[in-house]
Specification:
heterodimer, A: 257 residues, alpha/beta, six-stranded mixed sheet, 40% helix, 24% strand, globular, B: 280 residues, mainly alpha, 13 helices, elongated, binds adenosine-5'-triphosphate, binds magnesium ion
């Protein structure tokens, strides 16, 4: 059984009068349990839309998606119990402290604050949020620090499936590494399945077991970073994930200049 | 780790209910400056309305009992302050979380939508009572409010049952911001203003044109305010109230059920059209 799978997922949005924007056109892939699966693609290629459908925040127009065998439309509550998501924007009550935001989050999952407060403090500290900042309003934290709190929130009640939508965007190189290590650690120790979108090609290369490339709502390639690099190599020269990205998203650097 | 954290389903929903209440209590504390301004605004507008009573006596002469009119207005304005507070907290729940940016995380949690609504309503009632008592305490420094003839248990019951209807109204109106991210809140404000106009908060509904009286009969606030005036100003007892209270309670429960259903339909719609949240 796959931890995460989708078939022919299609989603469009209304855009002004009569016009529609096609965010996903028949996307299908499957992620094994304990796998770190990356999704790369240009801005507007449909990555966040895909993550939202898996997180039960958007209903697909057509196609199916399952998380641990639960259907994201018909068994949305089951799905919600086994996932958590991190997104780029800091989605917090700005006046509440990181701890208050985290405990609120835990209670929504039915877990009393007192059961997780120590773990919450520990996680925040591990991610480099000093103790005095843990109890001050979120709005006093830098953007990167807020992003770390978002990561801590997703890990507070460790979910079997993590949906990470650009979790390291806005982090400094050291913090980025720390978060990446945390993700890898979760997979290694808890067997967490991770779906990760990123614009950081090096991150995809380093962290992901397999990567899919999304372009204008279509899945145009899938494979391990090595396979993808092999695929586009022509003359024996070393290639990077960035080369893969340019080659497969059809927007080659030369075209633009 | 997970297994030991999760408990039985009902307990989980109770914890989540408390989560919503605690969150809003914390927010109220952190937005205290704004709370203070809002309180001052409510108090001054209540006082301004109550002074109309004394003013009318001065203008119209001895034919008007200014003290009685002041009390009449004071009951109306305080009950309205309470009911509208419940209405606003619940109906603006979605708009507010959208503004904070937390809405997707709240809707992504496994707790029931009913829990979400109950938790928010519970806070709305607690907050409404606390606030209205404070306004009452402050107002009693300006006016002599005799409660000797009042039937307080009856008044309490009216208010409790009225809260149920306004929770239902709030949930129903809360659908608007879900459907219309930009104009939804304005719509709930219009609804509140309309209720204020037709429910006889400051005057008997009989002075309204016939078509407005039809609306008045549909507004639960009309019955609550009439009931409260009866209980506080005339000491009307519970024996005379059983039937209207029962109707009000049934209507309120019906409105909550209908509102919850409408809310879940609107949630589906928002998730189909991408209106829950746009950016990111
Ligand atoms: N809620 C929405 N309402 C209307 N259009 C939307 C909505 N969400 C996404 N879209 C549109 O769908 C397309 C895909 O957007 P999406 O956010 O999934 O892209 P993305 O790959 O995550 O981009 P980025 O790399 O910039 O985050 C875009 O054209 C976007 O404008
Ligand atoms: Mg995105």
């Amino acid at each position: 059984m796959y931890a995460l799978s989708c078939e022919s997922l299609t989603k469009s949005f209304r855009k002004g009068k009569g016009k529609r924007v096609q965010a996903l056109c028949g996307v299908g892939f499957a992620v094994r349990a304990g796998e770190i699966y990356g999704i790369l693609g240009p801005n507007g290629s449909g990555k966040s839309t895909l993550v939202r459908i898996l997180a039960t925040l958007l209903l697909p127009d057509a196609g199916r998606a399952q998380v641990l065998g639960y259907d994201v439309v018909r068994q949305a509550r089951r799905v919600r119990e086994v996932i958590h998501r991190v997104s780029t924007e800091a989605a917090f009550f700005k006046k509440l402290s990181p701890l208050e935001n985290l405990l609120y989050g835990a209670r929504l999952y039915g877990v009393p604050g007192r059961k997780v407060i120590r773990r919450a403090r520990g996680l925040l500290a591990e991610l480099g949020i000093p103790e005095d900042k843990q109890v001050r309003p979120m709005e006093q934290l830098s953007r990167g620090q807020q992003q770390k709190v978002a990561v801590a929130r997703a890990l507070l009640i460790p979910p079997p499936v993590l949906l990470l939508d650009e979790p390291t965007t806005g982090l400094d190189p050291r913090s980025k590494r720390e978060v990446q290590e945390l993700i890898r650690g979760l997979r290694d120790e808890e067997g967490t399945t991770v779906l990760l979108t990123t614009h950081d090609m090096e991150e995809a290369d380093r962290l992901c077991d397999r990567v899919a490339i999304l372009d204008e709502g279509r899945l145009v390639a899938e494979g391990s970073p090595r396979e993808l690099k092999e695929q586009i190599r022509t003359d024996g020269q070393p290639v990077s994930m960035e080369d893969v990205f340019f080659a497969l998203t059809g927007k080659e650097w030369d075209d633009e200049g | 780790m997970r297994a030991e954290l999760f408990t039985r389903p009902l307990r989980r929903e109770l914890v989540a209910t408390w989560g919503f209440v605690a969150r809003n209590l914390h927010l109220t504390k952190r937005y205290w400056g704004w709370e203070l301004v809002w309180f001052a605004y409510s108090l001054t507008s209540s006082l301004a309305v109550a002074y109309i009573g004394l003013g009318t006596e001065r203008l119209a002469g001895a034919a008007v009992d200014g003290r009685a009119l002041t009390l009449y207005l004071l009951v109306g304005t305080l009950v309205w302050a309470y009911l509208s507070q419940i209405f606003y907290v619940i109906s603006e729940m979605v708009a507010w979380e959208r503004w904070e940016g937390t809405i997707e995380y709240t809707f992504m949690a496994p707790s029931l939508r009913l829990t979400h609504l109950v938790g928010t309503s519970l806070f709305a009632v607690i907050y409404g009572i606390a606030r209205t008592l404070l306004i009452l305490a402050a107002a009693s420094a300006f006016f002599d409010i005799p409660l000797v003839g009042a039937n307080l248990p009856a008044a309490g019951l009216w208010l409790a049952v009225g809260s149920v209807s306004f929770v239902g109204f709030g949930i129903l109106a809360g659908v608007m911001p879900l459907l219309f991210p930009e104009r939804g809140v304005q719509m709930t404000n219009v609804l509140a203003a309309l209720l204020l106009l037709v429910s006889g908060v400051y005057y008997p509904v009989e002075v309204l044109p016939a078509w407005m009286q039809v609306l008045a009969r549909m507004s639960p606030a009309t019955y609550v305010i009439q009931g409260m005036r009866g209980a506080i100003l005339e000491g009307v007892g519970l024996d005379q109230l059983a039937r209207p209270l029962l109707y009000l309670a049934l209507g309120g429960v019906g409105m909550i059920l209908f509102g919850t259903w409408a809310f879940s339909q609107a949630e589906r719609y928002a998730k189909r059209t991408g209106r829950l949240k746009r950016s990111g």
